[in-house]
Amino acid sequence: MLVLRHSLWILFLILTACAQGRSMPPHETPARKVPGMPEDFLLQSPCTPERILSLEEKSDQNPEAAVQAARCYAVPAREGKSGSVRLENAVKGRKMAETAVMHDPKNADAHYLAAYLAGLEAENDTLKGLSLVPVIERGATAAARLAPGLDHGGPDRMLGELYLQAPEPPVSIGDLDKAIHHFRRAVSQDPDFAENRLGLAEAYLEDKDREGACKQLQQALTRMPPARTMTMQWNRAMDLMKRVCKMESRED
Length: 252
Prior knowledge:
mainly alpha
């Protein structure tokens, strides 16, 4: 199953915000480096150059081949050793995902991959960052409409992150109310998936809703491994909890 969490593509939003001179809110933090898609979803079999070429040759007649090609490109787009390699693969992968969308507009995986790869493209070409925001929004919105349960509520989780982290208008599309709305939808799709509740907790925290944030953190922590495992999710939850406590101490 495809699992998109807080991918590095959010970084471009912060970078472009700084370039525009936007002041950062008190609790806005840099993007977290976490995994994007597990390879067992992206790669049904090893993606040799020959396999990619074969999939690309079939892509105009076979949307699923285009989706598979996009999956092949997503791994080096995320994990390539240089920015130029990551960018090249992100561009090629997005082209394949959009080819699949063109031939099969109801393919939720294709829309979701197109949004994700557009984010990786923006991450590695920050000058295009803001121009790619609508591409990410469009793909995630379509995926949320077609298959809201995909990736544990992933399309709405992606939209929640986008609206939470993006600069506000007129620079971009940042909107805290929309972020909360989409994180709530993600939670409704999979209440046991911790990333959904952590995203909603962070959105509540930005909205100064300490009670709502604490409730979501409590629910998330009950579904997480013990602290001694020091998982990425546990560390993030602890960071958010510290911020909640700081807010509480200031009010006291």
